[in-house]
């Protein structure tokens, strides 16, 4: 029993039914879909072909005692679904007893829950009490240390800086200390017993957005997430312009390397400040990114990625010290980059596969990592195909007239309904711009409302008569020569979606949809054989699967097969940080995945043009 | 048959009898001792209890057809030995047929011949021809490299600097290159096939003298040897004053670290200039030295070595990159320090044991490494005891009035004979000073001539009458308040041995002899049970075993059991550089050897005072 006004999600939790709700009650991801049973005998069972009731998943209430569908629900589901009683558990509030059936899909998380990852980090700690040196036992400090370490951490390498620190540290710690190893390398000797504190950093280094996640390596929890615009953007918005800068400007590569590291360090400072974690207790950073970001971060010339045969310099994992790269964790700590696959398909895609466990799935899934480069993976445990398309930074709010990251003031949801425009703004602030998920929504809603034609052109003329139509018509405007649609009028200045913004989105979605088409062709299956579409992205907000489907970013599959999973690359990085076993699995994934080089495909451009239409 | 006037050494070589002559025909080491048979029937066999004829070691000549003993022979052997027909094969010249028996000892080298060391260096090279990247084969550069390397060098680590160089190197080398690994680490990629060229550096880092040896790692030969005064001498002559500087002066440790490295680099420059070897083709340096030198070289605080319980910071081998330490070989190359034993007994002693193969001997041997610190090893395959005594730099010519290294102009041999003083000078130059071996000779000869009493006092009054006595009397002089004996009068200025110099030598020899006494006591054997005494030192010239015995530096054993073996520590370093198997053996030696801490022994000082007398 839960109080009236509680959500179905809260009611399910009270009944010990664990519903997957990755977006955190925000009505964004559409993942927590459940079906309310019609007000007939509760013995009838569920309706709808996707609903599979499982024993124990039903809670008995009097029928129809539930509030009507909310705007997010209407937006995320088709009228047919709503008519069939489908609701989002995080949105629907009960007023009395209802019978609800929870489909298996809603119980199975689309990404591996971090709680299921057993922490087995590369960082290991051992508390030691060493006997003090004496004439009877005058062995060397290092030998003394090794003797005590042997049962816990054997054969660790002692670097020169630590060797130099040793004669000072042992007596100052009174021979009571905690040794810290990352992999086979000793990185710190701390006074007393600090075995309960060990931290790591997972970094998703995107072309436009950089997400830095602070992780407790002992408990396995995420302590904080910070995102930043990649400081490399000053040298070019996309990977090609960055590569040009790196290869043609003297010192350009070093500038880009430092810019990436500074961006990470800036996010790290906020995390340290916010959580109070000691910098020197962050011993490892696992970094993922597309191949170009990976190369630039390591200071490796990415030039070969830009022209045929597009081979990277390195695709295997690279491991170096934090001080070598300038990452401001413990300077003797380790930076580990997950393996790349091929071409631009980098370790971020490996991390997406790891987080979604596609590589273990028996059914064929499609994962799309929406960023400045859109990486696409199609496959299952038997075969994994990948490709990369230059989507541009539209999904991250860049190169959009009022574009911004999903920070307070960003329009993240748009509904056009009964002639009105309803907005959801990050932080419930006055709207000042639009982020990727809002852009997708806005275009999808304009299309649904008949304000955009099939070619993606804003069509004021076609808006019908009547009150609601005229209200919408008032929102058409011009910025210079460019047609626009006013989304918000009540902030400090209006937020306008322009024809140009729509074109940017069309190019992005066309590239991705064409990539999907090529992968399906290469795999030899049809769209309908995709059991699940996973929409991932580091852009900070979950995108609306219905909007993604509406604009044709993803194939026209039943909406319940399309799931927004947030920053799966970041989560994969966290998983690899937490578990060396999963890191090995990542290496297997990178080796197994087959890469389809789209620029080598004569059919790609044709497909792209075809897929531009909305 | 050899021409009349040839040495016995040359005759033996012509008869394919390999006599050990480590000092290289210079009549210094006394190692090539053979016994000329008396002019009777050649069927009689050899005389003398140490002579064991072995079949095939006899060359038939007519008897007595040999020139009389030379000064080096008279100096190195007792009158009884000379009467018994013992000769030095490198000195005795034949005039006709003689029968000579070669004792086993003379056939067995006192140090392991480098020719017997099978080169198996840590440096490995592999010539590769890589397929160029193509759309059909667009794998990463590193993967391409690994694929080709796999059969030859598997699992090598690619460091960040090399990874960064890779995209430039592969095309510039036209994918035809030689990969160079040291241990598991890739250190260079060179154009074309360079597998026939690989070099290494063996360094004996002494408190006073630093010996640097350039070694061809392919053929196993020594290409050049350079020695330098350790630049650390500016901060103190002995280890204690260096430790004081390192621990009390701000930046003192770094100054000493840089001074050691600069000294090595200065010798290296000469070697590069002289041999034409490319700096970047020197991939590894193996460094030995006493524990204090080892710590200072690595930049590790040696403070704990100076006070009880005298534990070192590190005794195991340390491996780091050349650039970390500043050694001017290939910057990505490796510097490897052999393990220390304990206290001040460092890797130089391990190298001496390795070079003399004491640790494999069935008989008990005594090795003395004469340097500023005198390290002593007593034992055999079953047990090895070591200790270290502060001998001072007298053996290296330092703190001696006219002391110098064994450079041109240094008196290296002294004979006082029939009232005359005969000298052998390095480079046959006019004498300008005296080196360690000359100092030892001079004191021994003065003592034999009755010009020094048992307490080590120069005694002009006791010189007898007669012409020769008066000639010697004229050589007595004073420098200030100090009595002296003029060794050479004909150079630009006279070279004088002072009473103070003799005291320095007495202190040095007293310390070493006391150390020997303590080790014998600890081992539980008498002096006579020592099968061989090996006199090693990096001071540049072989010391005279007879002189060493005469002044009581070594126990009064038959002279043929005392052998000067030159810089055995340097040779041990060369062996470890050439063979990773021998490096493992060095680790075993360091682990096995037991250390006797003399400063912890109440009986040491008593023994020292007793052993001061000449």
Biggest sheet statistics of chain A: 6 strands, mixed
Q: Tally the beta strands of chain A.
A: 25
Number of helix segments of chain A?
A: 18
Assembly type? homodimer
CATH class of the largest domain in chain A: Alpha Beta
Give the averaged pLDDT of chain A, no decimals.
89
Indicate the overall shape of chain A. Answer: globular
Instruction: Note poorly predicted spans of chain A.
Output: 41-63
Helix content of chain A: 25-40%
Which chain pair shows the most residues in contact? Answer: A-B, 44 and 45 residues
Count of folded domains of chain A:
5
Strand content of chain A: 15-25%
Distance between the termini of chain A: 46 Å
Under CATH, the homologous superfamily of the largest domain in chain A reads ATPase, nucleotide binding domain
Please state the second-level CATH architecture of the largest domain in chain A: 2-Layer Sandwich
CATH T-level topology of the largest domain in chain A: Nucleotidyltransferase, domain 5
Which structural category do the helix and sheet elements of chain A fall into? alpha/beta
What is the alpha-carbon Rg of chain A in Å?
A: 26 Å
Strand order, biggest sheet of chain A?
10-9-8-11-13-12
């Amino acid at each position: 029993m839960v109080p009236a006004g509680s959500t179905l999600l809260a009611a399910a939790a009270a009944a010990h039914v664990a519903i997957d709700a990755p977006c955190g009650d925000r009505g964004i991801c559409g993942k927590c879909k459940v079906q309310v049973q019609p007000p007939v005998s509760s013995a009838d069972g569920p309706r709808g072909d996707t609903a599979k009731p499982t024993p124990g998943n039903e809670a008995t209430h009097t029928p129809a005692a539930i509030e009507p569908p909310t705007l997010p629900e209407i937006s995320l589901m088709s009228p047919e679904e709503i008519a069939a009683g489908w609701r989002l558990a995080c949105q629907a509030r009960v007023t009395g007893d209802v019978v609800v059936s929870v489909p298996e899909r809603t119980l199975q998380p689309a990404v591996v829950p971090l709680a299921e990852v057993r922490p087995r980090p590369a960082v290991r700690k051992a508390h030691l009490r060493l006997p003090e040196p004496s004439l009877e036992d005058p062995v060397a400090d290092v030998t003394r240390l090794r003797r005590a370490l042997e049962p816990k951490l054997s054969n660790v390498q002692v670097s020169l800086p630590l060797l130099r620190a040793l004669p000072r540290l042992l007596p100052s710690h009174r021979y009571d200390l905690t040794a810290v190893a990352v992999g086979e390398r000793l990185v710190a000797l701390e006074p007393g017993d600090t075995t309960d504190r060990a931290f790591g950093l997972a970094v998703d280094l995107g072309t436009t957005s950089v997400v830095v996640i602070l992780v407790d390596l002992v408990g396995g929890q995420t302590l904080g997430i910070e995102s930043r615009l990649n400081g490399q953007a000053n040298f070019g918005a996309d990977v090609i312009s960055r590569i040009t800068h790196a290869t043609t400007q003297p010192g350009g590569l070093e500038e880009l390397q430092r810019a990436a590291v500074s961006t990470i360090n800036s996010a790290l400072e906020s995390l340290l400040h916010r959580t109070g974690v000691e910098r020197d207790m962050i011993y490892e950073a696992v970094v993922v990114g597309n191949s170009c970001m990976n190369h630039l971060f390591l200071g490796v010339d990415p030039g070969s990625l830009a022209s045929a045969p597009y081979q990277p310099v390195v695709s295997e994992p690279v491991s170096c010290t934090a001080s070598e790269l300038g990452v401001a964790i413990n300077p003797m700590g380790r930076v580990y980059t997950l393996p790349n696959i091929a071409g631009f398909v980098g370790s971020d895609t490996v991390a997406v596969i790891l987080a979604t466990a596609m590589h273990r799935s028996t059914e064929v899934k499609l994962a799309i990592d929406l960023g400045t480069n859109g990486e696409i993976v199609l496959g299952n445990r038997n075969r994994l195909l990948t490709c990369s398309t230059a989507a541009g930074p539209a999904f991250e709010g860049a190169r959009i007239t009022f574009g911004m990251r999903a920070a307070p003031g960003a329009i993240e949801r748009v509904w056009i309904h009964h002639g009105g425009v309803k907005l959801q703004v990050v932080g419930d602030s006055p709207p000042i711009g639009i982020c990727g998920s809002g852009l997708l929504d806005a275009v999808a809603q304009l299309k649904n409302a008949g304000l955009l034609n099939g070619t993606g052109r804003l069509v004021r003329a076609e808006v019908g008569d009547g009150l609601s139509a005229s209200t919408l018509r008032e929102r058409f405007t011009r910025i210079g020569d460019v047609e626009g649609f006013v989304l918000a009028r009540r902030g400090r200045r209006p937020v306008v979606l322009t024809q140009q913004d729509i074109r940017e989105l069309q190019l992005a979605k066309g590239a991705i949809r064409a990539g999907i088409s090529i992968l399906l062709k290469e795999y030899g299956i049809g769209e309908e054989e995709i059991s699940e579409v996973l929409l991932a992205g580091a852009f900070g907000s979950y995108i609306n699967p219905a909007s993604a489907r509406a604009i044709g970013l993803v194939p026209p599959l039943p909406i319940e097969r399309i799931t927004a999973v947030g920053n799966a690359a970041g989560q994969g990085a966290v998983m690899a940080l937490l578990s060396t076993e999963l890191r090995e699995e990542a290496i297997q994934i990178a080796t197994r995945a087959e890469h389809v080089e789209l620029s080598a495909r004569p059919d790609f451009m044709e497909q792209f043009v075809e897929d531009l239409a909305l």
